[in-house]
Amino acid sequence: MEITKTLGEFIVDHQNQYPTATGELSALFSSIRLAGKIVHREVNKAGLADIRGAAGGDNIQGEAQQKLDVYANEKFKAALSARGVVCGLASEEEDSFVAFDGQRSLQGKYVVLIDPLDGSSNIDVNVSVGTIFSIYRRISKTGGPVSLEDFLQPGRAQVAAGYIVYGSSTMLVYSTGDGVNGFTYDPSLGVFCLSHENMRCPPEGNIYSVNEGNYVHFPSGIKKYIKFCQEEDKPSGRPYTSRYIGSLVSDFHRNLIKGGIYLYPTSSTYPSGKLRLLYECNPMAFLAEQAGGKALAGVNQPVLDIVPSELHQRSPLIIGSSSMVDKACEFLSEK
Ligand code: AHG
Ligand code: MN
Ligand code: MN
User: What is the Cα–Cα distance from 283 to 299, expressed in whole angstroms?
Assistant: First the structure.
């Protein structure tokens, strides 16, 4: 493919469409782009460098941290604090939010919420992992310290969101609220190149993604929907295809391109679902809606409308092609 535009050029073009833009959001994206390249480099030598395996600690949610979880968290934190446009960060790997209190950072307009390494249990077996990010304008006054309320905004208030998937190639996909665009990393040039312009999620697809090992723990509506997916009455004449990688980023990315549905519902083991509202569900829901798809936490409950009450809060997630999400919702609402 001929390279027509790099991510850097795309961001500048975009910024030029807004005469009042200050360049701060562009600087923020530069931080994400840089940290993404650093993590890409590390992920790609995971078999050689001493970065596989557990780091020896647990995060606040009691999950064993992998070395690459810790590494990615440190790299994104450092990159995001360096440019003075972000006043604070909340991360799946931090107990509480991190306030950036340098003189320039206090003036920063934005907060970033991040899952630095998603799908980290896949690292040791060479399966795709990712980074998910979510950006909000702070509510508290610039010049003062960042506060918890800056992070506890409904997903609808996101200024931008995106992910990097470290897959067979590394890709950065993001939206600032006017569509979704994807950039593939060319390691020989060290640049992300526009490869997927204006990504649209097909309204109907052929793939369902759910951890069926949890079947017995699912609510009956979800069980019935899974059985529906396995019936042979689909347009293809076959049941839907089951695909589950176990990295939300990779499962979502595939379904975004091909059409499909991803479900991480409530269960008797995870009464509120497993995925984290602020670091995983909201950014993915923002992208899904921007691409013409849907994301629900329950019947008639768009993920983006949930008002969060705590940083590490979990949420059920049903996300992907709009007609498929609607169909799943029909099963959930049946008494
Ligand atoms: P993380 O590695 O950031 O903790 O996220 C893992 C998440 C998500 O990426 C994935 O879809 C899901 O957990 C998989 O969970 P199960 O192993 O329970 O299916
Ligand atoms: Mn995750
Ligand atoms: Mn993670």
Answer: 20
Please give the tally of structural domains in the chain.
2
Report the distance separating Cα 311 and Cα 130, nearest Å: 20
- Which segment of 119-123, 171-175, 227-231, 300-304 scores lowest on mean pLDDT? 119-123
Is the distance from CB of 143 to CB of 137 less than 8 angstroms? no
Ligand 1 atom closest to residue 249's alpha carbon, by position in its atom list = 9
With 0.90 as the threshold, say if the pTM is over it.
Answer: yes
How many other C-beta atoms are found inside a 10 Å radius of the C-beta of residue 284? 32
Span from the CA of 246 to the centroid of ligand 1 (angstroms)? 6
Q: Which of 329, 286, 330, 326 is nearest to 305 (CA)?
A: 286
315 in a structural domain? yes
Do 127 and 235 have their domain in common? no
Closest Cα to atom 18 of ligand 1: 211
Closest atom, ligand 1, to C-alpha of 270 = 18
Specify whether 166 is located in the same domain as 215. Answer: no
Give the mean pLDDT of 57-86. Answer: 90
For 263-286, the pLDDT digits (tens) are 999 999 999 999 999 999 999 999
Measured in residues, the chain has a length of 335
Residues with CB under 6 A from ligand 1: 63, 92, 115, 118-120, 211, 246-248, 274
Quick one: pLDDT at residue 70? 93
Which residue range(s) make up the domain with 57?
A: 7-196
Residue 245, domain CATH = 3.40.190.80
Asked which of 170, 196, 222 is the last residue of a domain, the reply is 196
CA trace torsion 279, 149, 78, 68 (10° rounding): -30
Contact 159, 124 (CB under 8 A): no
Residue linked to tokens 């969101």: 161
